[in-house]
Amino acid sequence: MDIHESCFERLAAAYPDQLDHRGVWLSSWAGLENSVLSRTLSWFLKNWARCPTIAEFNEETTRERDRQKIANRREITDACSNCESGFVILDADKWIVRPCDACRPEQYDRWQTGKYRAS
Ligand SMILES: [Zn+2]
């Protein structure tokens, strides 16, 4: 049994008699990262009294993926030796900084094209 199948079994066990369409669930999870799937599942099991719909579940996997992306980015920035918390200081007196191209390439690209706004 792979991770997706065992996640479906956990979901089915948590909400007995509320869950069918095993094949539809499994195919809706196709391509989903194991970590996103199992963490989303744990979140539902902890927080939801009823079984979520496939659409509700998928919506939460999107949020979970964003959370993981932000956490990964923070780890990369923490480990980066080119910057201060993701920013490179251009002028310390005037406190002019730019996003770090090593650990925040997306922000750096936006900054380069003039679209960046510090948030
Ligand atoms: Zn950096």
Order of secondary-structure elements: HHHHEEH
Strand-pairing-aware structural class: mainly alpha
Mean pLDDT: 92
Number of strands: 2
Structural commentary:
- The chain is mainly alpha-helical.
- Helix content is 56%, strand content 8%.
- It is built from five helices and two strands, in the order ααααββα.
- It has helices at 3-14, 22-28, 34-47, 54-79, 105-112; strands at residues 87-91, 96-99.
- Strands 1-2 form a two-stranded antiparallel sheet.
- Strand 1 (87-91) and strand 2 (96-99) form a beta hairpin.
- It binds zinc ion.
- Zinc ion binds next to loops.
Task: Give a brief outline of the structure.
The chain is mainly α and 119 residues long.
